[in-house]
Amino acid sequence: MSDLSSVQNVQDQAKGDLEKIHNPQELEAFRIAYLGKKGKLSLLMERIKELSGEAKKDYGKAVNDLKRLIESSLSELKGKQTSGPAQTGSIPYDPTLPPLRPRQGSIHPITQTIQEISKLFVRLGFETVQGPEIETEYHNFTALNIPLDHPSRDAFDTFYVDDGRLLRSQTSTVQIRIMQSRKPPLSIIAPGRVYRPDAVDASHSFMFHQIEGLMVDQETTFGDLKGILKLFLRELFGSKTAVRFRPHYFPFTEPSVEVDIRWGKGWLEILGAGCVHPNVFKAVGYSTQKIKGFAFGLGVERMAMIRHGIPDIRLFYENDLRFLRQFS
Ligand code: DAH
Q1: I want to staple 296 with a disulfide (CB 3.0 to 4.6 A). Which of 44, 131, 197, 213 is the partner?
Q2: pLDDT at 280
Q3: pLDDT tier at 57, thresholds 50, 70, 90
């Protein structure tokens, strides 16, 4: 047999063998048989040294061409085996399996907490409303019975915008907006961002979220407030959670309380609340004789941190997927 026809012979064999490959094991066996150290191609190459001149050149080229052909057929087969439908053999192709999907995003834990709390209040008959983040001094302070000389009006505690407006420092602004635009009875909650020029640390951020609540009707009592907040906190933190109402001061409510829940061995302050101050009703043109109401405000980050044991508020804002994926 001439040298060139022995190359042709191996090529014909390879063609036949390639057609018989059905799985990765057979593919590997083929690779070793042809391209391995003692494979058929090595044998053909050994002959090169024994040839000379034109014959060596022609033979060498034929062997090299065949090597390349086999290599490219192999890599093509490999591609088919790993990419699915054409595959046969040991791992059967199952067309009923769901497709591989790209990883989907998920709702941010702060939004999840807002949605969960909103859902609870919607079940109690509250409506979710929103107000602007850039506010007037009137809505953020004056109408809420916060006196002109109150320290929170200071530039150190509020971000002011050039035109005299400000970034709201509390969602209580929405109480005013909603009462100005509607008549009682009202039951609303208002989730949203608030801003304060606080130094950022594990428990402070210059921006965070609050949920404001307001219920106004002819006969709304402090007892209603207690009942609703207890119900809400027990839904959120567990049905046996102890709830404590502690006297406090807020300018826009009278009487005012801070509300704590029993957590471990201690008490955790969880929200502020009270009966709407008559001056607030006056500011929005409601009758202080006929109308009563209560309000409350809570910090969303704080709620989420307590519930999930999150140690640092900054985790919410860093977009670190290792953190966020725990809430998907
Ligand atoms: N606005 C208060 C704050 O940011 C929270 C608050 C306390 C809201 C008592 C209320 C309330 O509606 O009645 O600290």
Answers
A1: 213
A2: 98
A3: very high
Cα distances (Å, whole numbers) of residue 280 to 118, 170, 277, 295? 24, 15, 5, 11
What residues pair up with 266 in beta bridges, in sequence order? 263
Cα of 272 from ligand 1 centre, angstroms: 5
CB of 186 shorter than 6 A to ligand 1: no
- The angle at the Cα of 208, spanning 244 to 317, to the nearest 5 degrees, equals 125
**From the CA of 212, how far away is ligand 1's center (Å)?**
7
What is the rounded distance in angstroms from the CA atom of residue 30 to the CA atom of residue 25? 9
Alpha carbon nearest to ligand 1 atom 2, residue: 297
Domain ranges of the chain: 3-83, 109-327
Give me 301's structure tokens: 């980050």
172 within ligand 1 shell (Cβ under 6 A): yes
Q: Whose CA is nearest to atom 6 of ligand 1?
A: 297
> What pLDDT digit, counting tens, does each position of 222-245 carry?
999 999 999 999 999 999 999 999
User: 245-256: per-residue pLDDT in tens?
Assistant: 999 999 999 999
105: how many CB neighbours lie within 10 A of its CB?
Answer: 10
Candidate CATH numbers 3.40.50.170, 3.30.930.10, 3.30.70.600, 1.10.260.40; the one for domain 109-327:
3.30.930.10
Q: What is the pLDDT of residues 157-167, one digit of tens each?
A: 899 999 999 99
Distance CA 196, CA 284 (A): 25
C-alpha pair distances (Å), 289 with each of 188, 214, 222, 279? 22, 18, 16, 12
Q: Which of 210, 250, 280 to mutate to test the pocket of ligand 1 (most atoms within 8 A of CB)?
A: 250
Q: Which ligand 1 atom is the nearest neighbour of the CA of 210?
A: 4
Q: Measured from the CA of 170, which atom of ligand 1 is nearest?
A: 4
